[in-house]
């Protein structure tokens, strides 16, 4: 039986590259995303190995989820509002925290009955959310929400450390050339492309849960 990976935000950037990596390694992949169009070609190529689900992390309880088991769950979807702190609205904060914190919390909770015995839950976060790292004006809501995600995964590990063999870890990424990076740092050229990082994410998600739990791992060649 094939192993099953669930990936949020798999329609572009790091998420799309990671979806391709799992498919190429003969996994079944469940993609939860608001935009299915970029995945149509992959669906034609991989057929039943790829399941596409329209899923909005801001309104997660309104979507029925497939009944596949969960060997790997990657919280990749992210939201960013680049705006000075004094101009930030409650709606801006709600948007960022809904996608980056509340959505992953509720999705993990919903999928608990489907987690396999040695499931690995991985959050794709940011080095900007790591305590003591360089912070940037305009990214208050993004970096603080990623900091919350980092601690959230540590808390999940504490919740289930004695009752399961599940692993919860975070990859705190540095600069990768994505649309979101362009929103945060217009004109900046990152040293890594998503397809250069996705093999690492695949290897980490598929094997690191056997040797580490509740960890926040910085993965960065550079931070703008």
Q: Using the alpha-carbon principal axes, give the shape.
A: globular
Reported CATH architecture:
3-Layer(aba) Sandwich
| Radius of gyration, CA atoms, in whole angstroms | 16 Å
- Number of beta-strand segments: 7
* Low-pLDDT sequence parts: none
What is the rounded distance between the termini? 43 Å
Q: Helicity range of the residues?
A: 25-40%
- The CATH top-level class label: Alpha Beta
Query: The CATH topology, please?
Result: Rossmann fold
Total of helices: 6
How are the SSEs ordered, and which strands pair?
Elements (H helix, E strand, L loop, with lengths): L3 E5 L4 H12 L3 E6 L6 H7 L3 E5 L15 E6 L14 H22 L3 E12 L13 H21 L6 E7 L5 H6 L9 H14 L8 E4 L5
Parallel strand pairs: 1-2, 1-4, 2-3, 4-5, 5-6, 6-7
Walk me through the structure.
There is one protein chain. With 224 residues, this protein is an alpha/beta fold. The protein has a single domain (52-219), classed as Rossmann fold, CATH 3.40.50.720. The protein has helices at residues 13-24, 40-46, 90-111, 140-160, 179-184, 194-207, and strands spanning 4-8, 28-33, 50-54, 70-75, 115-126, 167-173, 216-219. A seven-stranded parallel β-sheet has the order 3-2-1-4-5-6-7, sandwiched between helices. The radius of gyration is 16 Å and the shape is globular.
